[in-house]
């Protein structure tokens, strides 16, 4: 059973460690994601701007070079043509212009001698030829439109251009008309090489963006480790402090915010340890005072009890040796002596619980026989109904179970009245005992305080027959078994006290012993 307990505790510790690591990884993941998003945004923005600027520069450079060549070739070859040239003359001039340019096609358009439009192209009439149908109508209109001569415009015709896409290939189409009624020329230059360069640039920028994202993730991982490792140590220290290890301290290094946080934690832990030590010292002094007082009271109480027993025997013998006038006083002294004796015994028991010196003496008992013996010893057989099957065995402390049942049944008889019903049942590995009376029940405002020491439900009735410690002692005895006692009101009337105990308290003792050994070997967080 001890090995099983150790295995369960080890599994629980491993589960807590994994859960802590999951939470730690989650925070780390959030930091990495934030770093990644920032780096991705910066990289995409920079790459987009760089691509746009390079794209404009490449296209503008190619466009200007093509148009300048076209304008120069127009002046060199077209200006020498006679009016109303033939188609062959236009074709020859167009070929010469194309040979002087760079990967471009030229188309010349003029008015023939018969008044019809004559065209000449530098390319053959094939599928990739350049004809007037390949020139956008808007560009033709702009090229052939005569501009008004002004001080700011000294020429009637200008060079115009337009970018078009034929299939998947981008082209630059430009055109100009010779001044004085000469031919109109058009040029078409392929921008495929520039587009290919821009695609290569886009791929390069994309790869650079991906590499920057990976680099930022690695940097974020390193930064998260640097930041979260002290936070993890702080979390471990806080858990140890919460477990009562008040000497836990953090090792402080550096002057950053995390170092200040560690210093603040150490100061808080030191202050808390000092206050707890002071409170423990005062509590220990209080316990020692109560224990010493209880022990000191037992000696005179023993003598007083002996005298009161003699007086009580005289009263019961009815020999007439006592004056009838003092008989009530003698009975009061006997009653109060018993009450004082019970109070001293209860105080000593409470002192043992507070000092942590109470121990279990386990034995295998039949629950029904144990409760019957408790009832019989106090002459409650006529006032208590027991509903318990024989043979329900439990490994617990018989004396402490007797104390619990005596307090619960006695409290029910005193405040609820008879008959008091005691029922026993099994729920899994637990033993459940219900003690129900038939009284008025417990007021709702009193229920949370029924187990408090010396609690009085009414301030106008400060004195009672009991010590005010019975239910508190019963609860402590249940706790030392690893059990619990709850109080409630029954729907049918009356109060119900429910005692729940494990059927075997031996593993609890072994666990307390192992926890004590483990606590001795644990060190501080550094």
From TrEMBL:
Top-level enzyme category: transferase
Gene3D superfamilies: 1.10.287.130, 6.10.340.10, Histidine kinase-like ATPase, C-terminal domain
Keyword Nucleotide-binding: yes
Catalysed reaction equations from the record: ATP + protein L-histidine = ADP + protein N-phospho-L-histidine
CDD domains assigned: HAMP, HATPase, HisKA
Record-annotated Histidine kinase domain positions: 292-505
Region called Disordered, residue ranges: 507-526
GO molecular function, one term: phosphorelay sensor kinase activity
HAMP domain sequence ranges: 225-277
Record field: transmembrane: 31-53
SMART domains found in the cross-reference section: HAMP, HATPase_c, HisKA
Record keywords, A-Z: ATP-binding, Cell membrane, Kinase, Membrane, Nucleotide-binding, Phosphoprotein, Transferase, Transmembrane, Transmembrane helix, Two-component regulatory system
E.C. code: 2.7.13.3
A Pfam family annotated for this UniProt entry: HisKA
Biased composition (Acidic residues): 514-526
A single cellular component GO annotation: plasma membrane
Location of this chain's protein in the cell: Cell membrane
Membrane topology note: Multi-pass membrane protein
Listed PANTHER family: HYBRID SIGNAL TRANSDUCTION HISTIDINE KINASE C, TWO-COMPONENT HISTIDINE KINASE
Entry protein name: histidine kinase
